[in-house]
Predict the structure.
Amino acid sequence: MIRTGLRWLLAAFYAIAGYAHIANPAPFLAIMPAWVPAAEAVVFWTGIAELLGAAALVQPWSAHVRKAGAIGLALYAICVFPANINQFAMDMAREDGGLGLAYHVPRMIAQPVLVWLALWVGGVTNWPWRRRSG
């Protein structure tokens, strides 16, 4: 029951984020590291990836599709981590300190949690609650 609720919540989070990437790409472009080529296309396609991953998590027909969506969202969260680090560095370099450590530190901690959560709610892993053999 908890896993299902969190799966729907995570899907809603990613669906909203995906829509935001497409509807208003400017904030995402602003945090994109300079070394990323075709930044506009990357932001657009990351929005599409979020929407597809969210849809895969909540579709009721296939556990395989749900797991594939979960793996995709976990990989997505790993791939966007450089943009989050870039935003952290740029923001903290501002004279006013930007959003500050109270925003950025929890966000940095949340990133690996989002990776695990996608895998857990998608049924890819049961860690840390799996039964131990032996």
Residues 2-121 form one domain.
